[in-house]
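Escalated from tier 1: guanosine-5'-diphosphate holo job.
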Amino acid sequence: GLTSRLQNVFSKLRGKGKVSEEDVNEAMREVRLALLEADVNFKVVKDFIAKVKEKAVGKEVMDSFTPGMVIIDIVNKELTELMGGSQAKLAKSNKPPTVIMMVGLQGAGKTTTAGKLAKMLQKQNSRPLLVAGDIYRPAAIKQLQVLGEQIKVPVFSLGDQTSPVEIARQGLQHAKDNGNDYVIIDTAGRLHIDEELMEELKQIHEVVKPDEVLLVVDAMTGQDAVNVADHFNKQLELTGVVLTKLDGDTRGGAALSVKAVTGCPIKFAAIGEKIDALEPFHPDRMASRILGMGDMLSLIEKAQANIDEQKAKEMERKMRNAEFTFEDFLEQMEQVKKLGPLDQLMDMIPGMGKMKQTQDLKVDEKQMGRIEAIVRSMTTKEKQNPEIINHNRRKRIAAGSGTSLAEVNRLIKQFDEMRRMMKQLSSLMGPGGKNSKMM
Ligand code: GDP
Ligand code: MG
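Tier 2 regenerated the structure:
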């Protein structure tokens, strides 16, 4: 994947005390290939590489104490810029209700995302109304009604015999009459962009004058998603993009190209089929995730929302100071289990993404059980000071946990790697905030 390729490039650079212009060029050639392979738009890649090069061959970088790290930081910042820089927030009308129109091709995830968004707004103490504007796809209305019931958000529908434009008009009026502060209008998609669809969307647009026109695109479709975005944007003036199916095996191309190609920011990322699998999109966090630096902030936020805040803070401190032990590891596994799909969470922890990629150490629930058994077979002293775990101790741990010496060795090695990554991360972030120690 993109992350492992970039990590390879950077681990080469990081090893060097001095970086020559040739080293930078070589690294940039590899970054370029990695991005193209991840299905990032060709022109976007070209501009990106030019920008990074310009900054990376400067004298300060070459003469810096840790040139490799400085270059990674430059790439990180440019990736963040590429995706819009800072978080693009959902618009809020000062004359409620705020009207949100969901548009996109069939199967992109409009209806699902409409439900997720309603749930998110409801959690923020808003009173959203969902409007069933897809009268063409069989069962589309029912799908929205089921979602609405599940999250206890009202759904406005006039069946499938009234025109979508009229449904949208009356839906908006209904929201005004009932004090809903957000109206989320689900619309129909087609398999391909067609003029009839665009015409109808334009009419709805004219009638409800939305504050947000959110294009929902399937991230799995890579550059196609970007082309779709470009086309919709030319016809409808989008206000934001929602990238869906980021939980799947996407290559990252859509996330990295959409903003640069269309000028339209990504506002949300959908990471699963479940109703709460929607997150505000943070370019900086996505960049860190792509670079394999994990996504600690999202993880910590998630933890704070779902589990013991005190513990989460303590964990963050330990990670920053690289004081993380096997005891913390165990405790974190316990907490993590409460948070849901392991796969997604693992990607957020520095180093864990890499661990997951290791073929014979797939991080599924069963595998987690084996890892847990290994850690539980360590003595307290061993958990607190992993460096004392010598060959004999490893043999004992393997026997005690019913695993093999090879498995124990692997876990300890990966744990070491993880700690190293955390150290790097904490030096990147510094105690007072981002990058304070680096320059
Ligand atoms: P629409 O035609 O644009 O309204 O798309 P739907 O909302 O009906 O979604 C199409 C399919 O994609 C459904 O099976 C959804 O469960 C699925 N889906 C939507 N968002 C996501 C996501 O973020 N991840 C995954 N894995 N599936 C998703
Ligand atoms: Mg739909």
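The CA atoms of residues 91 and 388 lie 55 Å apart.
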